[in-house]
Amino acid sequence: MVLQRLLERVEKTGELDRAGDPLQRGVRATLPRRLKDLLHGVGLGHPLHPVAVQLPVGAWMSTAVLDALPGTERAATILVGVGTAAALPAAAAGVTDWSEQSREQRRVGLVHAGANMIALGFYAGSFAARLSGNHRLGRTLAYTGLAAAGLGAYVGGHLSFRQAAAVNQAEPYLRQIDDGWHDVYGWDELTENRPEVARIGEVPVLITRVGDKVTVMMERCAHQTGPLGDGEITEIGGAACVVCPWHGSTFRLADGAVVRGPSANDQPLLRSRVVDGRVQAALP
Ligand code: FES
């Protein structure tokens, strides 16, 4: 609870922006778009960062077990080296996601990254100590690094589960839609590849006519609930797509697939059909 309260204060600590804002601008300006998409996890189905951290965390946790056993110095050294090397791409994916998060999330993200950078420093030191034959020092540094990584993991949990960073933020809207078919729009009122916004109850949806088919997708962006109804329509790879006006996530209108980040999640679609000239939609 103490840690949670501290993190809630961090969310409101504007002084962190003095370091965070220039870093965010730097990350956004430096990385080419294709690399950013790769690091966000576009095409993977969800963000890359939580997948990429499995290797360093697994290696470092295994090191902690081996360090408690006799005669395991060589294996522990290899694991520390593997974990330390694997932490670099995991960090790159995390920083790329961080650069497109809300201000409050970025403040907490700085603490998350700081704890993990400290952990990485301890593990790099541990690796160097082990290579030079000082396994006692290597073990001490590794256990200290594990404590820092544990703190980083706790803060990462706050980011993911309390602040909903990098989750599909369009999904909760699905749960506000009742079962059954809902009348949403007139088929004849739709123009090819020009989406219209309608509501099912209180939930906004985006309706698009693509050829003789119709798609109905959630209108609030999977990344951070930006209004796709205000987004530009563009063509990528021969397919019409909608570009979120907030951070540029781009979704194919025909199936909701994300084709450009920062969202790594597809935009949820509803089932749709046309009955007596009216478009109807239902939960998938
Ligand atoms: S809200 Fe961030 S890209 Fe849509």
From TrEMBL:
<keyword id="KW-0812">Transmembrane</keyword>
<dbReference type="InterPro" id="IPR017941">
    <property type="entry name" value="Rieske_2Fe-2S"/>
</dbReference>
<dbReference type="InterPro" id="IPR036922">
    <property type="entry name" value="Rieske_2Fe-2S_sf"/>
</dbReference>
<dbReference type="Pfam" id="PF09990">
    <property type="entry name" value="DUF2231"/>
</dbReference>
<dbReference type="GO" id="GO:0046872">
    <property type="term" value="F:metal ion binding"/>
</dbReference>
<protein>
    <submittedName>
        <fullName>Nitrite reductase/ring-hydroxylating ferredoxin subunit/uncharacterized membrane protein</fullName>
    </submittedName>
</protein>
<dbReference type="InterPro" id="IPR019251">
    <property type="entry name" value="DUF2231_TM"/>
</dbReference>
<keyword id="KW-0472">Membrane</keyword>
<feature type="transmembrane region" description="Helical">
    <location>
        <begin position="141"/>
        <end position="161"/>
    </location>
</feature>
<keyword id="KW-0479">Metal-binding</keyword>
<feature type="transmembrane region" description="Helical">
    <location>
        <begin position="108"/>
        <end position="129"/>
    </location>
</feature>
<comment type="similarity">
    <text>Belongs to the bacterial ring-hydroxylating dioxygenase ferredoxin component family.</text>
</comment>
<dbReference type="GO" id="GO:0004497">
    <property type="term" value="F:monooxygenase activity"/>
</dbReference>
<keyword id="KW-0411">Iron-sulfur</keyword>
<keyword id="KW-0408">Iron</keyword>
<feature type="transmembrane region" description="Helical">
    <location>
        <begin position="75"/>
        <end position="96"/>
    </location>
</feature>
<dbReference type="GO" id="GO:0051537">
    <property type="term" value="F:2 iron, 2 sulfur cluster binding"/>
</dbReference>
<keyword id="KW-1133">Transmembrane helix</keyword>
<feature type="domain" description="Rieske">
    <location>
        <begin position="181"/>
        <end position="281"/>
    </location>
</feature>
<dbReference type="GO" id="GO:0016705">
    <property type="term" value="F:oxidoreductase activity, acting on paired donors, with incorporation or reduction of molecular oxygen"/>
</dbReference>
<dbReference type="Pfam" id="PF00355">
    <property type="entry name" value="Rieske"/>
</dbReference>
<keyword id="KW-0001">2Fe-2S</keyword>
